């Protein structure tokens, strides 16, 4: 990853947009890399998955996804914004690994309208949110920056290795912090340690698509995942108790 020039001269339209935390193209004529072929990614069958498994709401969501096949036979990920962590699972819900993440600077569960078309200088701090919800993520080209995992292409939200946007943001230090509040810095993209991206995300997806579930941090759980919340309520948990406020885990990120 190269350094990002925050003062971009032009905003790219959504079909040509790159992730908001990605650098501007060095050469507009540079051809993007092709998506990685499935047979180019080594088989991933570790003796023990990297990182700790989920607990609380994240664990219940993973169980529900596997039981209902809500992932449609795809690998899936759960991003916990409050705890600043991502959990990766295979097609049948087997845990692959977890890692700390950086997410949007501002709390909020919706992307600002048209944010994928804005220049960085036009995006205010309160618009730097990571949207919550269920997303079909897939690898695709960016504008001169190779292949990335697009979570929400229209709003230019991707999951990619952490990089330095500017020295003052201290992203490499933030992702190692045990304070989840220090993990809020991106323009909305989900940043993960590069070793985790290369060693877990790429092999788990094998060059294909995945379902990404991003837990909310301001909306009620049943406003974002109504069927899942209803299933929890049906197991004897009153709806008012099915809340994202439930502790997910002790939020101390692993060292990348």
SS class = alpha/beta
Rg (C-alpha, Å) = 17 Å
Helix run count: 5
Strand order of the largest sheet: 3-2-1-10-5-6-7-9
- Helix and strand run: HEEEEEEEHEEHEHH
Main sheet record:
8 strands, mixed
Anisotropy-based shape: globular
Estimate the mean pLDDT confidence.
Answer: 77
Fraction of residues in helices?
10-25%
| Uncertain stretches | 1-47, 236-256
Approximately what portion of the residues adopt beta-strand conformation? Answer: 15-25%
Distance between the termini: 16 Å
**How many beta-strand segments?**
10
Q: How would you describe what is shown here?
A:
The protein is an alpha/beta fold. Helices cover 16% and strands 20% of the residues. The chain contains 5 helices and 10 strands; from the N terminus they run H-E-E-E-E-E-E-E-H-E-E-H-E-H-H. It has helices at residues 56-68, 171-174, 194-205, 221-224, 226-233; strands spanning 76-80, 85-89, 95-100, 103-104, 133-141, 147-152, 157-161, 184-186, 190-192, 209-215. Strands 3-2-1-10-5-6-7-9 form an 8-stranded mixed sheet, with helices on both faces. A two-stranded parallel ribbon has the order 4-8. Strand 1 and strand 2 (85-89) form a beta hairpin. The two termini are 16 Å apart. Mean pLDDT is 77; it is low at 1-47 and 236-256.
